[in-house]
Amino acid sequence: MDLFNLVLEQKEKRYKERLAYENEFKSPVICFSLNIPYLYKVKNIDEVKALFLYGINELIKNLNPINYKVYLDDLFCLFAISDDAYILKEHCIKLENKHSFSRLFDFDVYFKNEVIKARASGRKCFLCDELAIVCQRNNTHTKDEIYQKIDDLFDDFYVYKALNYPCKNEFSSKALRALLYEVSLAPKLGLVEIPNSNSHSDMNFLSFIDSASELKWYFDSFYTLAMLSKRNEFKRLKRLGQLAENAMFKATNNVNTHKGALFLFAIMIYVCAKNENDLNPINISKTTKQICENLCKNELNKNLNSIGGKCFHLYGIKGIRDEVEQGFLNTFKAYEFFNKQSDFKELRTLFYISSIIDDTSLLKRCEYDLEKYKRVKNTCKKLSTKKSKNYINLIKKLNYIYVKNNLSFGGSADVLSLVFFLDFIYKINSK
Fold first, then answer.
1. What's the N-to-C CA distance of the chain in angstroms?
2. Residue 106: which H helix or E strand, with range?
3. What is the DSSP string of 139-158?
4. Count H helices, E strands: the chain?
5. DSSP character string of 286-321
6. Edge to edge, what strands does the sheet with 67-71 contain?
């Protein structure tokens, strides 16, 4: 059977089922389906069914039907509701406009075998301001344009579900703990610590507490998104991450406390969730590479006025994006280093990280002076292995110089948080 006849057959079945249902209950009947092309449904059937079931639950929650009948394979549902048909239609229009992705809902209200109309002219096209029926008749938009828009709406749907129905999990708790461990570590060269702001006059220890506390909800959301979503992964994760970033800035009065760490933990929590049943460095790295494939190529040339864009444009330094594109290569090196240390392991690991990663925040604070940047990294390399009875006093003295020169390496601190996180989750899994 060709596609045209298949669609006609489904419409005929829907009509007969709806008519019989209306005759059975003698009440207004709502027929719910999705405004999605047949071939798109076939290609993305699991996500389409998830949205379909969500729409059913929304109507049940809001309109309290006396009965409903779900045709899951045919993706339509009938509801019998004891209420005025025109009032029901108004409720349905509100449900269709409730979210961006609700634009894919189609609630038709019938009573006495007549369709109830409430709109003066009909629904508008979801790609432009023209009436949908006009665009459909004139083939105004290409198939690719329509499919891309539907994809965007499904992205909205999965981000909405992850954000509003987050699942608690061990990864999120350990990520929060890791952030708190990092900011509590002292002394650190130029970085915020208790009780000093050091090279960061716009923030302090409490700024980090405010920020980290706000992020726990979003860490749960990253985990939930991984449980729900199987495609457009980086795109959806980035969108959710941007919402988390907005929450961070709101909590800190627009001070950037955790933007880099948030980026890293969004990906790390998501990837760990995907590999929860077989969690090991190989799987974490492999999945991260898949999700972040071509990340540097796709993003670094977009905004050359950003810190990352300037570093890439001037010196080809890719920074934090390269770390995830390479599957947390340096993070796992740092974790191995961490486990080999016998004293001051947290501080040594911080300096080791600074010596091996491309820290764009450090390069910015070196005023994009590459030689100065290399000197700082070389100092950190020496500190990572230096044996001294006065190790802490040495760092305190160096800290005075770093603060005087407004130096710090926030990117390295972010990776140290990841090392703490890995230590926490591997200890859990080894029990």
1. 57
2. strand 105-111
3. T-S-HHHHHHHHHHHHHHHH
4. 20, 5
5. HHHHHHTTTHHHHHTTT-TTSHHHHHHHHH---THH
6. 67-71, 76-80, 29-34, 105-111, 114-115
Q: Helix axis angle, 170-184 relative to 259-274, nearest 10°?
A: 150
* pLDDT exceeds cutoff 70 at 431: no
Query: And the tokens for 52?
Result: 């379909």
Cα 56 to its chain centre, rounded Å, is 26
pLDDT tens, residue by residue, 185-223: 999 999 999 889 999 999 999 999 999 999 999 999 999
Task: Identify the burial level of 340 via C-beta atoms within 10 angstroms of its C-beta, where 0-12 means exposed, 13-18 middle and 19 or more buried.
Answer: exposed
Do 348 and 341 form a contact (C-beta atoms < 8 A)? yes
**Closest among 94, 53, 98 to 75, alpha carbons compared:** 53
> What is the pTM assigned to this prediction?
0.93
Residue pair 75/48 in contact (Cβ under 8 Å)? The answer is yes
pLDDT per position as a tens digit, 11-55: 899 999 999 999 999 999 999 999 999 999 999 999 999 999 999
90/13 Cα distance (integer angstroms): 26
Q: How far is Cα 52 from Cα 35, in angstroms, rounded to an integer? A: 10
Distances (CA, A) of 224 to 17, 58, 164, 169, 269: 37, 20, 10, 9, 10
For 367, left (φ over 0), alpha (ψ -120 to 50), or beta?
left
- Pair of tokens at residue 274: 């995907």
Burial of 393 (0-12, 13-18, 19+ CB in 10 A): exposed
